[in-house]
Design brief:
The chain is mainly beta. 7% of the residues lie in helices and 37% in strands. The strands form three sheets. The protein has a six-stranded antiparallel beta barrel. It has a two-stranded antiparallel sheet with strand order 2-3. Strands 5-6 form a two-stranded antiparallel sheet.
């Protein structure tokens, strides 16, 4: 008995959903560095691992974002912003701790994606009936200086 062939579904989803260009990078050594031109902290010396067509989407509604409120920390509103990266099955499995950026958005796409970074939470999912590679992400949050 032949198995279920999802190659046609994969081709459709790649053309319908994978509209932006994503880059997966290994984080460089050292602490994040403040970029004066963007106003964001960025990991230094990112080592590109894979770049290609993909999509980054929230994995839940805004109501699903949880806050971490710990009085001893220098910030009290750190959140876990859960997202998912979708890439073709031909993309390599991402490693935990990699940094994901959107380097190009499709025409009419959300330019805000270009200013953000996400941290890979676990290796990319793999499964028997996959049509796309799905990777769990957490948005890199900017911490505030105590003042």
């Amino acid at each position: 008995m032949a198995g279920l062939d999802l190659s046609g579904v994969a081709v459709f989803l790649e053309g319908f959903l994978l509209l932006d260009t994503l880059r997966f990078s290994r984080a460089g050594t050292g602490e994040p560095v403040f970029n004066n031109s963007t106003g964001l902290y960025e990991y230094p010396d990112l080592d590109p691992y894979w770049e290609g067509k993909g999509a980054v989407l929230p994995s839940s509604t805004v109501g699903g974002v949880t806050g971490l409120s710990v009085e001893s920390l220098p910030w009290s509103d750190e959140t876990r912003s859960r997202y998912r990266a979708f890439t073709p099955l031909s993309a390599p499995v991402a490693e935990r701790g990699m940094i994901v950026t959107v380097v190009q958005v499709h025409e009419g796409g959300d330019l805000e994606l270009l200013t953000r970074q996400w941290l890979v939470q676990d290796p990319s999912a793999a499964g028997t009936f996959g049509a796309l590679r799905i990777t769990g992400l957490d948005q890199v949050q900017q911490t505030r200086q105590a003042g």
